[in-house]
């Protein structure tokens, strides 16, 4: 399964550091577009979870 077929979960980081699930998005490019949109409407810290890797991942090439 490629990154374009996989589903990733987007979380917003709450002030206490805990994650709040926002939505599931299919495909890494769709995740990037959605994160950019979320930042415009609600500039918060968002993280992406990859269930296959069982970890948060950095979709923009920065530290996640």
Structure commentary:
- With 64 residues, this protein is α+β, with helices and mostly antiparallel strands.
- Helices cover 22% and strands 36% of the residues.
- It is built from 1 helix and 4 strands, in the order ββαββ.
- The protein has a 4-stranded antiparallel sheet, covered by helices on one side.
- A hairpin with a 5-residue loop joins β1 and β2.
- The mean pLDDT is 89.
How does the overall form come out from the CA principal axes? globular
- Low-confidence runs of at least 5 consecutive residues: none
User: How are strands sequenced across the largest beta sheet?
Assistant: 2-1-3-4
- Helix/strand-derived class? alpha+beta
Task: Output mean pLDDT.
Answer: 89
Topology:
Elements: E1 7-13, E2 19-26, H1 28-41, E3 46-50, E4 55-57
Antiparallel strand pairs: 1-2, 1-3, 3-4
């Amino acid at each position: 399964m490629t990154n374009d077929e996989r589903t990733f979960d987007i979380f917003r980081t709450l002030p206490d550091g805990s994650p709040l699930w926002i939505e599931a998005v299919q495909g890494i490019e769709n995740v990037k577009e959605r994160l950019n949109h979320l930042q415009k409407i609600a500039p918060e810290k968002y993280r992406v979870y990859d269930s296959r890797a069982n970890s948060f991942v950095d979709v923009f090439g920065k530290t996640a």
